[in-house]
Amino acid sequence: MKKKVVSLILVLALCLFTNNVVAVEGHWAAGDLYILKEIYKFEVIGNLDEPADKALQEEVFKLIGLKKRPRHEMLRFRIFYYMVESLPIEKLGDEECNEMLQDFADFCDYCKKNNRTLGMAKKIGLLRGRKTVEGLVMAIDKPVTKAELGVLAVRYLKVKETLK
After folding, report:
1. Would 76 be classed as within a structural domain?
2. Which of 77, 97, 102, 125 could pair with 140 in a Cys bridge, judged by C-beta atoms 3.0 to 4.6 Å apart?
3. Are 119 and 101 in contact (CB under 8 A)?
4. What is the DSSP letter of 109?
């Protein structure tokens, strides 16, 4: 009886582990999440497409060296804002930022302040957009997912490294 229980536990553990590996390997963010795990020793676990909770956001902010701490689950815009504002980079003008964002289906002509942040995020490689049926979107009013937060952490760390 004891052997059967141990065998059952091993099979269950193997199935759970295998599903997680397959889910990550087939996910659009798999490459960056692998880098995050192997180089930075930080693993994003759970359903990668669900919103990142405050605890995960705090861990990622600490990992990448952001001084700000999230007060709640943040929207994608706020993550871009904190990252862009923390980097010692020359700001772009309104026209240049708007030009960089024209390909996004949810581009806002009258959102100048937001567009400055998003244009900078696009220029330095943080913002690439989400693919949807409407086209490529910034989805700035949507919560950042676990996968997106992990990918943004890797992109941010790469940008920081190039600025040294």
Report:
1. yes
2. 77
3. yes
4. T
